[in-house]
Here is the input.
Amino acid sequence: MLRGKAILPSFVLGRFSHLPCRERLENEPAQVAAFSKLLQCLRSITGFIACSFREVKQLKFHKLYCDSQGESHWEDIEVELQEETFAPPAQAIEISAPEIVKKTMFLRLKSGWNEPVHPTPVAQKLICLSGTVRVTASDGESRDIGPGDVWHMEDKHGKGHHTAVTSEEDFLSVIVQYE
Here is the structure.
């Protein structure tokens, strides 16, 4: 999750002009902020999207993992940023270490969707664009994942987790898989 104000540069919107949500994004500041956060997350994960932000104080994500007894638990992970000259002649920026990924997909869960408890099929990150889900680890701790939040799933075995859409709107996200 990102804290602070996010700005979506017009050159980035131009690259996504084919997306059906583009016009809605331009007219809804909250959606622009969420989409801007998504682009920054994708940049840190895949290394191919550049985006600028102001007033970012913390960059964290929710990690769900499984212990040796098969119990799933939540952990907050702070992303380490290093200052680098990334795109000369532009000024240096703060950027995370790249992560190698296998697949990227978009996901929609309809409002009211409620699944049975299960482990994640592969290690993956979910980046929420809109809507909200409540995810409950097998230890009973729940987290609400909403626009701009990043959820890293590693509970590939054991008891798993439960997910339900809690918003009136559909839950839209990007999934980035590591396996």
User: Anything to note?
Assistant: The longest strand covers residues 60-66. Residues 1-25, 46-56 have pLDDT under 50 and may be disordered.
